[in-house]
Design brief:
Isopropylmalate Dehydrogenase, ten-stranded mixed β-sheet, binds nicotinamide-adenine-dinucleotide, alpha/beta, two-stranded antiparallel ribbon
Length: 357
């Protein structure tokens, strides 16, 4: 197949980890006879330095014309003094909005060799492999009315509105069922249907959409119980389907079960072009030293193959190469443990490349 991939390295460690992921994608292209066309563009602080804005029009146009976008990270101390509207991080909101990315997918997986990096006990987290799917453009963060208003008798009133339409729930539920079909075929829908009408509708629509996916098992859980079960028995979860706020909170909780931010990829998908990026930021404290862990970004490239290009076999090859490399004892500094071999960003990328079968 032919695919156009927009490559936005951004700032800080983004500029070190993205070349490693591109290196792996090129090798996959060669091995499996695909033509991946990579085009780089500026975003974040680097774009501010060059053209004065964090998300140049050219970058956005490139993203829109591509089949997928691979993003590093943006931000850094150099741009912290700028007005909020001109900060590098604005580019993230801008590109997500412009691409209409309404679903955020965050896997939380514990690799056998990294079990001890978690703060939880080995027997609780061993073997967990969860995909949290968060609705990204609706719910309480966007609902109206919102605001703070004065009260006649003194004091103020703060208001936000949790609101979902049938269509918004339907499209995110489809993402969850389709993702589950690529995995262990279980969707747990998270809601608070015992008290919230918006959750009542959420549950009703999820049940309706489920009719089209009889091969997937659907269950429902209240969000408070979900938060508890994630630390009590996380292995019970496959795909967790969440609204914007519940997903915001639970995806961080799930991510931290694994213990290492340098290992966690993410995907944001919408109507057309998807965006794939590590969950971590530009890590200015370690940038430019060849010590950043490139695995989150390489795994994000794997998600891109699977979710944007439907190349599941190729995505699995990347996953196997990561596991093999960890099994061989290669570690970047953030995941080192006694008896392992600490390597740099480039060397980790090279090792994963060698292990692509
Ligand atoms: P961060 O994720 O950049 O770093 C947090 C900690 O994790 C740091 O100690 C860092 O060294 C470490 N870390 C991060 N990625 C790593 C990797 N690949 N390998 C090894 N260690 C890694 O978060 P922060 O320090 O709060 O933010 C730094 C900058 O990044 C800020 O400007 C922030 O706004 C921006 N940021 C950007 C994104 C994004 O681009 N999506 C996300 C979060 C933060």
């Amino acid at each position: 197949m032919k695919a156009k991939i927009a490559v936005l390295a951004g700032d800080g460690v983004g500029r070190e980890i993205i070349p490693e992921a591109v290196k792996i994608l090129k090798a996959i292209g060669d091995k499996y006879h695909h033509t991946f066309e990579f085009t780089s563009a500026d975003i974040g602080g680097h774009a501010i330095d060059k053209v004065g804005v964090p998300l140049p029009n050219d970058t956005l146009a490139l993203a829109k014309q591509s089949d997928a976008v691979l993003l590093g990270a943006v931000g850094g101390p150099k741009w912290e003094g700028l007005d909020y509207s001109m900060r590098p991080e604005r580019a993230l909101l801008g590109i997500r909005e412009a691409l209409g990315l309404y679903a955020n997918l965050r896997p939380a997986k514990v690799y056998a060799n990294l079990v001890d990096a978690s703060t939880l006990k080995r027997e609780v987290i061993e073997g967990i492999d969860i995909l949290v799917i968060r609705e990204l453009t609706g719910g309480i963060y966007f609902g109206r009315p919102k605001g703070i208003e004065p009260l006649p008798g003194g004091g103020e009133r703060g208001v936000n509105t949790e609101v979902y339409t049938t269509e918004e729930v339907r499209r995110i539920a489809k993402v969850a069922f389709e993702a589950a079909q690529k995995r262990r075929k279980k969707v747990m829908s998270v809601d608070k249907a015992n008290v919230l009408e918006s959750s009542e509708l959420w549950r009703k629509v999820v049940i309706e959409v489920h009719q089209d996916y009889p091969d997937v098992e659907l269950s429902h859980i209240y969000v408070d119980n979900a938060a508890m079960q994630l630390v009590r028995n996380p292995r019970q979860f496959d795909v967790m389907l969440c609204n914007n706020m519940f997903g915001d909170i639970l995806s961080d909780e799930a991510a931290m079960l694994t213990g290492s931010i340098g290992m966690l990829p993410s995907a944001s998908v919408g109507a057309k072009v998807g965006l794939f990026e590590p969950i971590h930021g530009s890590a200015p404290d370690i940038a430019g030293k060849n010590i950043a862990n490139p695995i989150a970004t390489i795994a994000s490239a794997g998600m891109m193959l699977s979710y944007a290009l439907q190349l599941d076999k190729e995505a699995e090859a990347i996953e196997r190469a990561i596991v093999k490399t960890l099994d061989m004892g290669y570690r970047t500094k953030d995941i080192q443990s006694p008896g392992t071999q600490v390597v740099g960003t480039v060397e980790m990328g090279d090792a994963i490349l060698r292990n692509l079968d």
